[in-house]
Design brief:
The complex is a heterotrimer of chains A (436), B (314) and C (187).
Chain A: E1 10-20, E2 25-34, E3 37-42, E4 52-55, E5 60-63, E6 65-70, H1 83-92, E7 95-100, H2 111-124, E8 128-131, H3 147-153, E9 158-159, H4 168-177, E10 185-187, H5 192-195, E11 200-201, H6 204-209, E12 213-214, H7 216-233, E13 237-239, H8 245-257, E14 261-265, H9 267-271, H10 293-305, E15 310-311, H11 340-349, H12 356-363, H13 365-371, E16 386-396, E17 415-425, E18 428-432
Parallel strand pairs in A: 1-4, 1-5, 6-7, 7-8, 9-10, 10-13, 11-12, 13-14, 14-15
Antiparallel strand pairs in A: 1-2, 2-3, 5-16, 16-17, 17-18
Helix pairs in contact in A: 4-7, 7-8, 8-10
Chain B: H1 16-29, E1 47-52, H2 57-69, E2 73-78, H3 90-98, E3 104-109, H4 114-121, E4 125-131, H5 137-151, E5 158-162, H6 169-180, E6 184-188, E7 204-206, H7 209-212, E8 218-221, H8 227-230, H9 237-244, H10 248-254, E9 260-262, H11 275-278, H12 285-304, H13 308-313
Parallel strand pairs in B: 1-2, 1-3, 3-4, 5-6, 5-8, 6-7, 8-9
Chain C: E1 8-15, H1 17-34, E2 41-46, H2 49-65, E3 71-74, E4 104-112, H3 116-128, E5 133-141, E6 153-157, E7 165-169, H4 171-174, E8 178-184
Parallel strand pairs in C: 2-3, 2-4, 4-5, 5-6
Antiparallel strand pairs in C: 1-8, 7-8
Classes of the chains: A alpha/beta (436), B alpha/beta (314), C alpha/beta (187).
Chain lengths: 436, 314, 187
C-alpha cells in the first residue's frame, strides 16, 4: 500500500508512555502526527484544530514493529494465507511492516513476482510489505536468481529461506554479487545432510519419543560456514531464526571480529523447548526445531546483549490438514504475527528477563536499521508507523480469533497479560483492539 | 491395583502396579490357550478394530486371536494399500473408523506418536501395537511375562539389550518397564545405533558385546534392519555380525550359565544371533511368541471388559 | 455376589465352628450316597472360599471312603453377565489340572444367592469339556434366586432379606470357622 495516499490528517496521541529507543526516549509524552509523518514528540502538546486525539494514558507508544521474517504464502498457497489476511494478522499483532520470504509458488526469484507482491500489498494490504527475493532460481540451490533486477524491483534482502543453500561456492558468489545492493543475504542455516529426515531437536526428548532428531550441529556447522563466507566476501549476512547456543557463540565471536553479521530469533525459540514436543502437537514442529532449555537461555542472553539483533516471528501459516496428522509427516512452521508481542511481554518483560526498551528496540529500531528500512523511530519526519500496546490487557490466546487464515500456533490457550492496542501505519489506525 | 486407563499407549506412563496388573492378568489368561474350546464370552458384543499401517502379520494375528478368544468381533483394517494409498489422511481414516463405533482400536504405525493422536481424536480405547521408534507396549509386557515365568521375579535382575537401540520401540518400552520393576538395564551396540542421551532413559551404555553380556540374567538381542547399512550407520552386515553377533562361543566365554536369550523376532539368523543360540537351550524366543496372545487378551479385557463409563472417565 | 453397603455389623451367628464342620461332614456323606461312592467324582471350587470348601469336602471323603478326589479351581470373571457394570475386571487363573470329560463334577461355593455366579460357572465348566453330570454343593443357601438354579447339597438354608449379607469365614482366609449374618449399620 501507499499510506501517503490516504487523506492527510492530524493525530495527537496523548499521555502514553513513549518508548523510542532510536531517540532514547522513555517517558510520558504526546506524539503529534501530521500528513503521515511524525511531527513532534513532547510533553503536553497543544491539540491542533481538527486533530483527532487518542488518549493513550497507561499505554505504551512505540515505533511501529517490523517483522522481517514472515511467509505470506501469496502467490501460490492462498489457502494458507494471502497478502490481505497476512497483513491483517500483522496489524492485529502490532506490526506495521513485514518482510515476506520468497518461497511462494511461483518463487519470488524474478521481477514479475516481486511486482505482483507489491501491487497486491498496495491494493489489499494494510501494513507495509517488503519482499525478500530468492538467492537461487526456484530455491533449487543451483543457479543465482536475477538478483540485481530483484533489488531494483524492491526486494530488501535475499534468501532461500525454508531451504539452505548447500553449495558453498554458489553462496559465496551470491554474497559477492549482492554487495553493491546494500541488502543482506539471509541464511536459513541448516545442513540438510545433518538434519537428515529429522522432525525435532536431537536430544533427550527425541530419544524418548523415538523421533528422528536434528542435532544442534546441523545449524552450527552452517552458521560457521556462512560467517566464514561473510568474512571472505565482506558481505552482510543475516542469520535467520537462530536456535542454538553454539550458533549464538559463533555469531558473538564473529561480531567481535568485525564480521558483518546480524541475527534474529523467534518468540517460539525463546519461550518453548523440546519438551513441548511430548504433546505430539505438530504445532511444536518447525525448522529449526525447538531446542533445549540451555539453548533457549543462550538465545535470551544474546537478545539482551545485542548478539541477536531482532525478534522475527517466522510466521509460517499452514492449513489444519497439514498439521493434524502424524508428527513426522506434518509441515514445518507456526504462525506468529498475532501472538509474538503478547507472549514476549508476558513471559519475558513482565518477569523482568527482558527490558521494555530492549524488546521495543529489537522489534523496531534494530530490524529497520539492518534492512535500511524507513521507520523504527519516532524522530520528527519519520513515517508515522506506531504500535500502541496495552501492557495490562489480559488475553487468552484463541486461534479461532486470528485474522490469519491459519491457526497453527503453539501458544493456543496461553493466558497472558500485555497486548497490542492500536496499530498505526502512516498516521492511519489500521487496527484497534476490539472493546470488551 | 485396578485398571482405570482408557488407552494403552506407552509403558513409560504406567505405574509399576499397572504393569503388574497387566502381567498378572495375562498370566491368568494363559490357561485358555490350553483348552480344547479356546473361547470365553468376556468381550461378547464388543468390536476390536486392528488398524495396521505397517505390515506385521505376527502382531496383528496375535491381537486377532486374542480378540476372538475373548468373543469380540475383530475387524482387520490394513491401511497399507487401501484408503491411505489413495491419499486419505490418518486423521480422516481415524474418523471413519470411529463411525463404526468400535470399543477398541489397535494401531500399528510407522510414525511415532500416531496412537497418541488417535487417542485424542477417538473416544474408544486405543492400544499401541508399535509406533515408529517410540514404544511397543504389548511386546514389552510379553517379554516381562516371559522373564517372570523363567526367573520367578523382577527385582534385582539385570538385562542387556543389544543391537539397534536407536530405531527400536521394543527397546524403549522394555527399558521403561524393566526400570519400573527394579531391573538394571544395559543397552549395547555400535555408537551409531545407540540413541543420543540413552543413559537419560535410566540405563547403562556399553560399546562392547563381551562387557554387556557379562553376568546379566537376560540378554535381549534386537533385529538389525538391513536399511541401517545403507544409511551409513554400519559398514556391513558381515562386520556387524562379527562384532555384535551372539554366538555359542561368546556366550560360553562371557555369559552366566542360566542366562535367558530373548529376541522380539523375526530373527536374522547368522546376523545378530547364530542359529545354535537361537534354537539352543538358553533361548526363550518361542516362549515369548506364545505369551503374545495372553498379553493381548489381558490388554483387550482390561480396556474393554469393564464398565465402559468408568474406564473411560479415567 | 452383590454390592455390599459400606459398613456392616454382625446381626447373628448362623453356624459356629462345630456346626460348620458338621454341615460339611453331612454333605460329604450325601455326595457319596447320591453317587453310589466316590468313583468319577471330582470337585471344582469357585474362587475363593468355594475352593477351600471343596478341599475340605475332598478331605472328608478321603477319611470316610479312602478315595483321593481331585479338586480344581474355577475363576468365573470371564463369564460374568455383569462385566459392564463393574470396573476393570480382575481375572485370576482357572486351574483344573484334570479332565472333567465324563466325570461327575461337584461344583462348590460358599453362598448361593441370585444364582448368576453358578450360571457363569456352568458355562465356564461346559467350555472346559463335557462332564457326565454337574452337581452343586453350597454351604449357605440364602434365597432370592433370579435364575432356575437349585443346589444338590445344602449346608444350611437361611432366609434373609436382600439388605443383609451372609459372611462365610474360614480359617484359611479369615482366621476362624463361622458363618454370620450381617446388616447395614443405621446411619
Amino acid at each position: 500500500m501507499t499510506p501517503e495516499r490516504h487523506l492527510p490528517m492530524t493525530l495527537l496521541i496523548r499521555g502514553g508512555r513513549v518508548i523510542d529507543p532510536a531517540g532514547s526516549v522513555d517517558g510520558v509524552q504526546d506524539v503529534l502526527v501530521e500528513n503521515g509523518k511524525i511531527a513532534r514528540v513532547g510533553a503536553k502538546l497543544a491539540v491542533p484544530q481538527g486533530a483527532a486525539v487518542i488518549d493513550a494514558a497507561g499505554m505504551w507508544v512505540c515505533p511501529g514493529f517490523i517483522d522481517m521474517h514472515v511467509h505470506l504464502r501469496e502467490p501460490g498457497h492462498e489457502y494458507k494465507e494471502t497478502i490481505a489476511s497476512g497483513t491483517r494478522a500483522a496489524a492485529a499483532g502490532g506490526f506495521t511492516a513485514v518482510c515476506c520470504m520468497a518461497n511462494t509458488q511461483p518463487v519470488n526469484d524474478n521481477r514479475a513476482v516481486t511486482d505482483y507482491i507489491r501491487a497486491k500489498a498496495e491494493s489489499e494490504g494494510v501494513v507495509r510489505v517488503y519482499p525478500i527475493g530468492a538467492v537461487t532460481r526456484g530455491l533449487e540451490g543451483k543457479e543465482l536468481a536475477e538478483l540485481a533486477e530483484l533489488a531494483e524491483a524492491g526486494c530488501v534482502a535475499f534468501s532461500d529461506d525454508g531451504k539452505c543453500v548447500m553449495n558453498a561456492e554458489l553462496y559465496r558468489r551470491a554474497m559477492e554479487y549482492t554487495l553493491p545492493f546494500g541488502a543482506p543475504v539471509i541464511s536459513h542455516a541448516e545442513d540438510h545432510t545433518l538434519a537428515h529426515a529429522g522432525s525435532m531437536h536431537e536430544g533427550v526428548v527425541s530419544t524418548e519419543l523415538g523421533l528422528q532428531g536434528i542435532p544442534a550441529a546441523a545449524e552450527d556447522v552452517m552458521v560457521a560456514r556462512d560467517l566464514l563466507l561473510a568474512e571472505l566476501t565482506g558481505a552482510h549476512v543475516h542469520i535467520a531464526h537462530l536456535s542454538t547456543a553454539g550458533a549464538v557463540r559463533l555469531v558473538r565471536d564473529a561480531k567481535a571480529r568485525g564480521v558483518r553479521v546480524t541475527a534474529e530469533v523467534t518468540p517460539h525459540h525463546l519461550l518453548l523447548t523440546e519438551d513441548a514436543v511430548r504433546s505430539w502437537d505438530a504445532n511444536t514442529k518447525m525448522a529449526p526445531p525447538l531446542r533445549s532449555t540451555r539453548d533457549a537461555e543462550a538465545l535470551l542472553e544474546a537478545l539482551v546483549d545485542g548478539t541477536i539483533d531482532c525478534v522475527a516471528t517466522d510466521h509460517a501459516p499452514h492449513a489444519l490438514s497439514e498439521k493434524e496428522g502424524e508428527f513426522d509427516h506434518a509441515a514445518n512452521g507456526v504462525v506468529g504475527l498475532e501472538t509474538a508481542v503478547t507472549v514476549l511481554i508476558d513471559r519475558l518483560v513482565r518477569p523482568g528477563r527482558l527490558s521494555v526498551a530492549t524488546l521495543v528496540s529489537r522489534l523496531s529500531r534494530d530490524p529497520a536499521r539492518l534492512l535500511r528500512l524507513p521507520g523504527g523511530s519516532l524522530g520528527a519526519g519519520a513515517p508515522a508507523d506506531l504500535t500502541l500496546i496495552d501492557p495490562d490487557g489480559a488475553v487468552t490466546i484463541d486461534p479461532a480469533r486470528f485474522k490469519s487464515k491459519s491457526r497453527n500456533t503453539p501458544f493456543a490457550g496461553w493466558a497472558a497479560t500485555g497486548r497490542p492496542w492500536k496499530t498505526i501505519v502512516a498516521g492511519k489506525v489500521v487496527w484497534e483492539c476490539p472493546p470488551k | 491395583m485396578g485398571w482405570t486407563r482408557k488407552d494403552l499407549l506407552t509403558i513409560r506412563e504406567l505405574e509399576a502396579a499397572e504393569i503388574l496388573t497387566l502381567v498378572d492378568t495375562a498370566a491368568s489368561l494363559q490357561e485358555i490357550a490350553t483348552r480344547e474350546i479356546k473361547k470365553v464370552p468376556a468381550l461378547r458384543g464388543k468390536t476390536v478394530v486392528n488398524l495396521f499401517y505397517e505390515n506385521s502379520t505376527r502382531t496383528r494375528t496375535s491381537f486377532e486371536i486374542a480378540g476372538k478368544w475373548l468373543s469380540a468381533d475383530v475387524i482387520n483394517f490394513s491401511a497399507t494399500g487401501s484408503s491411505a494409498a489413495k491419499g486419505e489422511s490418518f486423521v480422516d481414516t481415524a474418523r471413519n473408523i470411529a463411525a463404526m463405533s468400535p470399543d477398541v482400536v489397535v494401531v500399528r504405525h510407522s510414525s511415532s506418536g500416531a496412537p497418541a493422536l488417535l487417542a485424542r481424536e477417538l473416544s474408544c480405547s486405543i492400544v499401541n501395537a508399535g509406533d515408529g521408534a517410540h514404544e511397543h507396549p504389548t511386546q514389552a509386557l510379553l517379554d516381562l511375562l516371559t522373564i517372570r515365568e523363567k526367573k520367578g521375579h523382577f527385582e534385582g535382575l539385570s538385562v542387556a539389550i543389544v543391537g539397534d537401540i536407536a530405531h527400536s520401540r521394543v527397546a524403549r518400552s522394555n527399558i521403561h518397564g524393566m526400570k519400573k520393576l527394579g531391573m538394571t538395564v544395559t543397552v549395547a551396540g555400535p555408537p551409531t545405533l545407540i540413541p543420543p542421551y540413552a543413559q537419560e532413559l535410566g540405563c547403562k551404555v556399553s560399546y562392547r558385546l563381551e562387557d554387556a553380556i557379562r553376568d546379566v540374567d537376560v540378554i535381549m538381542m534386537l533385529r538389525l534392519q538391513q536399511e541401517r547399512m545403507h544409511a551409513g550407520l554400519i559398514p556391513s552386515l558381515r562386520e556387524y555380525s562379527r562384532y555384535w553377533g551372539l554366538t555359542l562361543d561368546r556366550l560360553a566365554a562371557h555369559a552366566r550359565p542360566d542366562v535367558l536369550i530373548m529376541h522380539p523376532g523375526p530373527v536374522n539368523r547368522g546376523v545378530e544371533l547364530s542359529p545354535e543360540v537361537a534354537d539352543g537351550p538358553y533361548s526363550v524366543i518361542l516362549d515369548q511368541v506364545s505369551k503374545g496372545v495372553a498379553v493381548r487378551m489381558a490388554v483387550l479385557l482390561l480396556l474393554a471388559g469393564g464398565r465402559s463409563g468408568e474406564a473411560q472417565a479415567q | 455376589m452383590t454390592a455390599r453397603p459400606s459398613r456392616l455389623r454382625e446381626k447373628a451367628e448362623v453356624l459356629d465352628t462345630a456346626a460348620l464342620d458338621r454341615a460339611l461332614t453331612r454333605i460329604a456323606h450325601e455326595i457319596l450316597e447320591k453317587n453310589g461312592g466316590a468313583k468319577d467324582v471330582t470337585f471344582v471350587g469357585l474362587r475363593t472360599r468355594g475352593v477351600t470348601l471343596a478341599q475340605r469336602l475332598a478331605a472328608k471323603i478321603a477319611s470316610i471312603d479312602g478315595a483321593s478326589l481331585p479338586v480344581g479351581t474355577l475363576d468365573i470373571t470371564l463369564y460374568r453377565d455383569d462385566l459392564d457394570m463393574i470396573g476393570a475386571p480382575v481375572v485370576r487363573a482357572t486351574d483344573i489340572p484334570f479332565s472333567i470329560k465324563d466325570k461327575t463334577v461337584v461344583l462348590v461355593d460358599d453362598v448361593l444367592f441370585t444364582g448368576r455366579t453358578i450360571r457363569a460357572a456352568l458355562d465356564a465348566l461346559i467350555d472346559l469339556g463335557r462332564p457326565k453330570m454337574i452337581q452343586l454343593a453350597i454351604l449357605v443357601d440364602r434365597g432370592h434366586r433370579e435364575l432356575p438354579i437349585r443346589p444338590d447339597y445344602i449346608g444350611k438354608n437361611l432366609p434373609t432379606s436382600r439388605r443383609e449379607a451372609v459372611a462365610v469365614r474360614l480359617t484359611e482366609h479369615d482366621g476362624e470357622d463361622r458363618v454370620v449374618i450381617e446388616e447395614p449399620e443405621e446411619a
